[in-house]
Amino acid sequence: MQSSETRGEPSRGAHEGAGGEGLPPRAEILGVPLAISSYEQVLSWMDEVVSTGARASLTAAAVNLLMCAADDEATRQAALSITLAVPDGQPLVWALKALGHSTATRIYGPELMARHCERAARAGTRIFLYGGRDEERLSILKARLSERFEGLQIAGSFSPPFRPLSASERRSVRLRIDASGAEVVWVGTGQPKQELWMAQMRPELCAPLLAGVGAAFDFHAGLLSQAPAIMQRSGLEWAYRLSREPRRLWRRYASQNPRFIAAFTRQYLGQRR
Questions:
Q1: Are 120 and 146 spatial neighbours (Cβ–Cβ below 8 Å)?
Q2: 8 A C-beta contact, residue 93 and residue 104
């Protein structure tokens, strides 16, 4: 028998014990459950995770993550281990709506991070920043966030190397984050690297919430400009980002965008049948 998520119907999923009390309903796109929610619902759930001390994880999922999960079993398992994946890309919102979820809305990673930082500054929630291109640029991010959100408690930060961490380095990072007393660890290392890291570190870290937000660090630090709102609403953010980083991104978009359209079309037609 097909599960409700396989049929594209809302489901609460398997994370009820990990901050699941207020978890928004979800529906699968290419096998990955995505939230059918609003910013306020997601922020309220994040606050609940922190206040109860549950251990949970969140990611702002883009088409890139879904296609990497389709290609690689380790990434698929990492994506499925995430407590709550929200649709960061407008194409994913359109896909949810095509399956009948008319209330689905985009939860844009940089915007979610900004809104939560505003709430964290008021509530005294301690955050940790894991990611960034290097320590110098991570320092810029910390300064920008502190200036924008007065009273924000940045408990610590770390910019990891681009290579995988050794066992000793991973232990050092764990001790560093735990010692900071951080309640929310923002992870900005890009997809699927951040999901793989969160899946590996979630059982080891004391912080209630790990939240992956991709390029949000670069946007908030002012190192990259965000696409105009009209391009975001039109699902053309990828074109804007490609124009800014063509050498890094052209292979991804040239391969993954057409494949996503084809794969979702198969899912849509299969569910209609």
A1: no
A2: yes
Question: How many Å apart are CA 41 and CA 9, to the nearest integer?
Answer: 19
* Coil/strand/helix, residue 61: strand
* Element of type H or E holding 238: helix 237-244
Tokens of 45: 């759930």
Our separate counts of H helices and E strands in the chain read 12, 8
Q: Is the dihedral of CA 268, 112, 108, 156 positive or negative?
A: negative
Q: How far is CA 266 from CA 53, 68, 185, 256, 272, in A?
A: 41, 18, 37, 15, 10
Write the DSSP string, 107-147.
Answer: --HHHHHHHHHHHHHHHT-EEEEEE-SSHHHHHHHHHHHHH
pLDDT in tens, the chain (273 residues): 344 434 455 554 444 445 656 899 999 999 999 999 999 999 999 999 999 999 999 999 999 999 999 999 999 999 999 999 999 989 999 999 999 999 999 999 999 999 999 999 999 999 999 998 889 999 999 999 999 999 999 999 999 998 888 999 999 999 999 999 999 999 999 999 999 999 999 999 999 999 999 889 998 998 776 667 777 777 777 676 667 667 766 576 667 888 999 999 999 998 877
Q: Which residues pair with 211 in a beta bridge?
A: 58, 186
Q: How far apart are CA 23 and CA 73, in angstroms?
A: 25
